[in-house]
Design brief:
alpha+beta; Immunoglobulin-like; 4-stranded antiparallel sheet; 3-stranded antiparallel sheet; 3 helices; 33% strand
Length: 195
């Protein structure tokens, strides 16, 4: 074997494999930023391409591609586990809040309008009671509409706090209506109220 040509060096294989480097960087970023599934997928895809290029280039970048593949797979697995855990946690929170917010189940209360009156200056007032028929302490929001001549003139709401099972409380809602009009008062909604 003779010396290399005059003024030159023996050629070395091209050691560049930018895709492998990108796979490693994306894999690290996916791990640092909460094991993102999208980042994990990108790292795996880039690592596969980087490994294919490493074969063509005498192994250049193979280590970076393998590291990117491993980090991407870890990110995918941990990201999926995190997603499942968050979903389960949200389900638990939803179950815990069920019956504490939103429309009340009619089986959980008895409500009545005891008085509906129009006073001076077209002021109207409704009052009544609500009984907690559920098995736990509740807050209820009572919504009342005031109607005259078939149309809603006003509405309002009151909150009755901390009713124990089988306990009753009173509510009062005030509004305005057309002076001299015959006004009807009706409970249109009862909601659980989380304070």
């Amino acid at each position: 074997m003779g010396p290399p040509p005059h003024g030159g060096f023996a050629s070395a294989p091209n050691g560049r494999n930018g895709v492998a480097t990108a796979a490693l960087v994306v894999g690290i970023v996916a791990l640092v930023f909460c094991f993102t599934i999208v980042g994990g997928i990108a790292a795996v895809v880039l690592a596969i391409i980087g490994l294919a290029r490493a074969k063509q280039r005498a192994g250049a970048g193979r280590g970076r591609a393998v590291a990117g593949l491993v980090l991407g797979l870890i990110s995918l697995v941990v990201g999926a586990i995190t997603l499942i855990a968050v979903g389960a946690g949200l389900q638990l929170v939803g179950d815990a809040l069920d019956g504490l917010v939103g429309p009340a189940d009619p089986a959980d209360y008895d409500v009545s309008v005891d008085a509906c009156s129009v006073g001076g200056s077209a002021q109207v007032a409704a009052s009544g009671s609500i009984t907690n028929t559920s098995d736990r302490t509740r807050n209820f929001l009572v919504r009342v509409e005031f109607t005259a001549a078939g149309s809603v003139r006003d509405s309002g709401e009151d909150i009755v706090y901390s009713l124990d099972p089988d306990e009753s409380g009173t509510w009062v809602v005030e509004g305005t209506a057309t002076a001299g009009a015959r006004v009807n008062c009706a409970v249109v909604a009862v909601e659980n109220y989380l304070s």
